[in-house]
């Protein structure tokens, strides 16, 4: 690479716009062209390169001598980075929540970088602080539906915060659980509260032996991270089984709470249920917990009620989806990610609080910013410096509007149902969840196995003799173990062939419960998906599956014999 001038004058020029727009435009256009080429690329979901090969490309062990010309470094980025990036925008890439974004988002990112506002304090983020508060109020309103007067009073009231803009769903959940912890162990008389005294002293002051968080087995692992960071301990995140629809099993939850109390009584201990968490769009299956019932239980137990709607929450901007989320307004707080269903680029979360004063528990002050009388947003956040990321959802909610998002969700729903139909018609696949928010779980099962499963199920239901039931259950389990291996292999082979992509997980909540079943997972939110593409995806996966059957078929035949 050609070395650039190493003078302060040259470097200073990099920090301001050039005298004329020429250079800025030249590089700007080069970058836009590079991005355009990346999207035009139709071969595979990323260039075929192995991970060890990538490690070879990026193996320079010390900071390069520079400065180099911008042009050359941009070229290097094109050659080494963009071509080896994953084509998450491809409609054949339906494996993760990361999907296509509207192109104007790229332009909004340029504005965000150019303004370089730091949302932590008003001195570095003027209008952008107000934009953020406005956006937070919009999201608060679709969830809690407080009256106009409430929003008029609080939207720009710097003494309170309706919520925080965060870096992602993980940080939103952490923020919510931190508030939950402060509320569970507050200051009292001369006791200064958990924030000052720490978890040990606070638990002992209140006579608790531990604090627990209850969430279904479908809970996102960010909740465990939060328990770790908040000093509760990961083992105090208690997993509650789900029903066949992947919703928290309310009876199992009640039983668990009862057992905890009984155990406490027996051992002379006291457990505090710090928070009950509902999920509104589980990561693996997209299903939504029964939030009304969870809200009731949380209230009965005096527990904080958080709803993790990182995946699904944004659907609430469309009225048709409200009924799925019934009860969400009872939550103390709700997390929503904008890089999921709001189609914004990575990454930004929002966490909103029903009570506008709740974030006051986190207030921090310092001498040089966030002073006591300041209007800085940073007083309420765990994070310090933050970008003006909220410009993207703020602008997008105007550019697409509720009507635009309604159409996108309608299309995503149709894509999900079409994919389900195409899979079922192909006869080699079995769909294993009831999709609510655009996520489908399925697996490859040859028809001769599926027929057996159905026949065995009927026999078991008819309660034929006990020995026979034991034998059929054993055979089902054995066959499923082989199918699990087949489907794991299928997903790996799909990834290797690199023309389509789905992810995989294991679920204990399918019709084969409690056995864990390896399933393929498709997330169908890309608006460019159509029936033809879905048919091609299924036929590709079918073809790869049939190839694998050469190896697996004899084992399956033996297992069902
Ligand atoms: C339900 C749920 N909660 C939390 C998260 C974490 O979000 P993030 O990856 O933005 O930290 C996810 C991510 O997939 C999620 O699906």
Keywords for this entry:
alpha/beta; 11% strand; binds pyridoxal-5'-phosphate; Aspartate Aminotransferase, domain 1; 561 residues; 46% helix
Layout: helices, strands, pairs:
Blueprint: H1 8-15, H2 22-40, H3 51-57, H4 70-81, H5 104-115, H6 127-144, H7 148-154, E1 163-166, H8 169-184, H9 194-197, H10 199-206, E2 210-216, H11 222-229, E3 237-240, H12 250-267, E4 271-279, H13 291-301, E5 304-308, E6 333-337, E7 349-353, H14 391-399, H15 401-426, E8 429-431, E9 439-444, H16 447-461, H17 466-497, E10 503-507, E11 517-523, H18 531-560
Parallel strand pairs: 2-3, 2-4, 4-5, 5-6
Antiparallel strand pairs: 1-7, 6-7, 8-9, 9-11, 10-11
Helix pairs in contact: 2-4, 5-14, 8-11, 14-15, 15-18, 16-17, 17-18
How would you sum up the global shape?
Answer: globular
Distance between the amino and carboxyl termini? 66 Å
Q: State the CATH topology of the largest domain.
A: Aspartate Aminotransferase, domain 2
Largest sheet: 7 strands, mixed
Query: Which percent range fits the helix content?
Result: 40-55%
Please indicate the percent range of residues in DSSP E strands (runs of 2 or more). Answer: 5-15%
- Reading off the top of the CATH hierarchy, the class of the largest domain is best stated as Alpha Beta
Task: Name the CATH superfamily classification of the largest domain.
Answer: Type I PLP-dependent aspartate aminotransferase-like (Major domain)
What is the chain-wise order of helices and strands?
HHHHHHHEHHHEHEHEHEEEHHEEHHEEH
Structural class: alpha/beta
The radius of gyration over CA amounts to 27 Å
If classified by CATH, what would the architecture of the largest domain be?
A: 3-Layer(aba) Sandwich
Number of strands: 11
Q: What would the average pLDDT be, to the nearest integer?
A: 94
Q: Give the domain tally.
A: 3
- Please mark out the parts with pLDDT under 50 across 5 or more consecutive residues, or reply none: none
Strand order of the largest sheet: 1-7-6-5-4-2-3
Name the hetero compounds present: pyridoxal-5'-phosphate
Enumerate how many helices there are, as a single number: 18
């Amino acid at each position: 690479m050609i070395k650039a001038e190493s003078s302060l004058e040259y470097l200073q020029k990099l920090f301001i716009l050039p005298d004329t727009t020429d250079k800025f435009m030249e590089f700007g256009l080069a970058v836009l062209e590079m991005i355009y080429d990346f999207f035009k690329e139709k071969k595979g979901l990323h260039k075929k390169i192995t991970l060890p090969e990538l490690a070879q490309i990026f193996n320079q062990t010390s900071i390069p001598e520079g400065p180099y010309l911008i042009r050359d470094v941009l070229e290097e980025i094109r050659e080494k980075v963009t071509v080896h990036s994953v084509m998450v925008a491809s409609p054949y890439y339906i494996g993760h929540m990361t999907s296509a974004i509207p192109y104007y988002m790229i332009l909004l990112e340029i504005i965000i970088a150019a303004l370089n506002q730091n949302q932590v304090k008003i001195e570095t983020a003027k209008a952008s602080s107000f934009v953020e508060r406005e956006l937070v109020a919009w999201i608060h309103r679709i969830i809690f539906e407080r009256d106009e007067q409430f929003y008029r009073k609080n939207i720009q009231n710097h003494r309170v915060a309706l919520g925080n803009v965060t870096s992602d769903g993980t940080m939103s959940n952490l923020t919510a659980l931190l508030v939950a912890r402060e509320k569970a162990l507050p200051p009292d008389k001369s006791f200064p509260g958990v924030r000052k005294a720490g978890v040990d002293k606070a638990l002992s002051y209140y006579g608790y032996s531990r604090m627990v968080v209850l969430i279904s087995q479908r809970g996102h692992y960010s909740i465990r991270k939060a328990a770790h960071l908040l000093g509760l301990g990961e083992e105090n995140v208690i997993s509650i089984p789900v029903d066949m629809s992947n919703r928290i099993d309310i009876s199992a939850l009640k039983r668990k709470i009862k057992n905890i109390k009984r155990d406490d009584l027996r051992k002379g201990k006291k457990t505090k249920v710090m928070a009950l968490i509902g999920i509104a769009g589980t990561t693996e299956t997209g299903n939504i917990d029964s939030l009304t019932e969870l809200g009731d239980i949380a209230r009965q137990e005096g527990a904080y009620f958080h709803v993790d709607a990182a995946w699904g929450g944004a659907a609430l901007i469309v009225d048709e989806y409200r009924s799925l989320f019934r009860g969400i307004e009872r939550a103390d707080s709700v997390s929503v990610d904008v890089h999921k269903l709001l189609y914004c680029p990575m990454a930004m979360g929002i966490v909103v609080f029903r009570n506008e004063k709740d974030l006051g528990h986190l207030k921090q002050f310092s001498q040089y910013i966030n002073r006591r009388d300041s209007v800085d947003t940073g007083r309420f956040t765990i994070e310090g410096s933050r970008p003006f990321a909220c410009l993207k959802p703020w602008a997008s909610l105007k550019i697409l509007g509720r009507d635009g998002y309604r159409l996108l969700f309608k299309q995503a729903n149709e894509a999900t149902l079409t994919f389900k139909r195409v899979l079922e018609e192909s006869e080699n696949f079995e769909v294993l969840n009831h999709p609510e928010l655009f996520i489908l779980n399925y697996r490859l099962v040859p028809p001769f196995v599926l027929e057996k499963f159905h026949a065995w199920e009927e026999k078991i239901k008819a309660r034929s003799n006990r020995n026979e039931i034991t034998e059929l259950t054993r055979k089902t389990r054995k066959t499923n173990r082989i199918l699990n291996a087949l489907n794991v292999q299928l997903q790996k082979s799909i990834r290797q062939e690199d023309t389509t992509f789905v992810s995989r997980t294991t679920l204990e909540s399918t019709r084969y419960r409690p056995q864990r079943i390896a399933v393929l997972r498709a997330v169908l939110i890309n608006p460019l998906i159509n029936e033809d593409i879905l048919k091609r995806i299924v036929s590709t996966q079918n073809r790869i599956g049939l190839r694998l059957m050469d190896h697996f078929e004899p084992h399956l035949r033996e297992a069902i014999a």
